[in-house]
Design goal:
The chain is an alpha/beta fold. It has a single domain, classed as Alkaline Phosphatase, subunit A (3-Layer(aba) Sandwich), CATH 3.40.720. It is built from 13 helices and 17 strands. The protein has a nine-stranded mixed sheet. β6 and β7 form a beta hairpin.
Amino acid sequence: MRHSTRGALGLSLSGLWRAQAALADAKRSSAISKIRSCIIVFYYGGPSHLDTYDLKPNAPADVRGEFQSIETSVPGLRISEHLPRMAKVMHKVAIVRSMTHQNRLHDSASTEVLTGRQSPQGDREEFAAIPQFYPCYGATLSYFRREQGVEIPHAALPFLFHNVVDVPCQGGGFLGSAFDPLQISVDAEQRAYRAGLLSPPEGKSLASVAERRRLLDAIENVAETNTSAERQWRTFYDKAFRLLGSETLRRALDLSQEPAAVRERYGHVPFVAVNGDTSQSASANSRAMRGQNLLVARRLVEAGVPFVNVFDFQQQGQNWDAHANNFFHHKHYLLPQTDQSLSALIEDLDQRGLLDSTLVIAMGEFGRTPRINANAGRDHWPDCYSIVLAGGGVKGGYVYGSSDKLGAYPEANPVRPSDLAATIYDRFGLDPATEIHDLTNRPHRIADGQPMREWFVST
C-alpha cells in the first residue's frame, strides 16, 4: 500500500509539472516576437551619466564638470561634446535618464542589471568565486527556445568580465551550464576572434576529429551505459562537435571578410611601434579591438544569433570606474572609442536592414556621483543614471524619465533593472510573468518588473 501511495503521488506531481510546462509553452507560442535579436553593450565600471547623456549645464561647477553639451540630430536634445558621432544618430536612439537601483558595488550592481534580479548575496563584491544563481537574459531566452534548434542561441565576447573574480551574472545560473553563452575571445596581438576551444587540436583536421567521434560512438554503443551524467556529457560533446564544424560561426568571426572601410568605421586602429618600442603593444592592440567587438556582434546577429553580450571593461584599456581623473579619461580614452563604435553599430545595422529587428542596449551597472571628488573623479552612483537604446522598434529621439537638477535622483518615471528585464523579454514575445524553476523546483518569474512599451513605436 505504501508503494502504491508513493507512486500515485509521483504521478500527480509529474502531471502537475507537465501541465505547468504545457501552459507556459502555450503562452510562448501565442506570443509574437517583436524583435529577432538583441545586443547588450555593457560598460563595466559605470560611465558617468553627467558627462555623457544627462549633462547639467546649470548646476554648480563641482557637479556640471568640464564638458559642454552639443546639439544633436533631434532638435532640443543635447548630449556631451565628446559624443559627436552619436549626436548625428540620436534620431534613431532613445535615452532613459531615470534608471535606478540600490547596489553600490560593481558585482552586485552588474548582477541586478544583467539578470533583472538582486544578487542573493546582497550588495557586496565577490572575492571568491561563487555559483551564479539567476540566469542572464540570453540564458533565459535560450531556455525558452531550446527546441528551436538555433545553432548559437547566445554569445558573449570578448572575455568573462570580473572585478576580483568572474562576476556571477554571465551564464545560465540555476538553468544549468547548458544555457551558458558561447564564449568568444579576442587575441589582441593577432587581431582575431575565436570561440573558446572550438578549433581542431594542433596538427589535426576536422576529418580526423570526426573519425575520433565515430570511434567514440562505437565504444558507447558497446558499453550500453546511459546514466544522467553520461547523457549530460554527451549533450555538451554533441554541441561542441557541431560548433567545431560550424561554417556559420567561422565566417562570423572572420573579420578579414569585412572591407577595410567598415573595420575602420568601427574603430580599427592599427598599432605602430615607435622607434621599435613594442612595450605598449599589448595594451594598444587591446584598445584597438574595442570597436571591433561591436563589429563581431553585428556579424553574429547577421548570422542568426538571437542574443549577444559585449563586455567592455578594464582588460581593454582604461577603466570606466573613473574615481580619479574622470574628465581626462572620458575625454581621451573612453568616449572617443565608444562614440565611434556604438554609432557605427547603429548605422551599420540600419544600412543592412537589421536595425528594426535588433534591439541595441548600451549601459553600465550604474552612473557616477553628481559631486566631483578631491581626485577630479566621480564615484559609484546607482540612484540615478542613463542608458541608451536603439533599434528593435524604439522611438528615435525619445527621452524617457528625468533626473533632478543635480542628476542625483529620478525626478520623473523611475525605471529599475527589473523593468528593463521585463522589456527585453516582452520584445522577444515572452510574458514577464512566465515562470522558470530552480534546482529545488521553486518557481521564479522571469522578470518582476513591467515592460516599458511606451519606449517603442508599436506595442
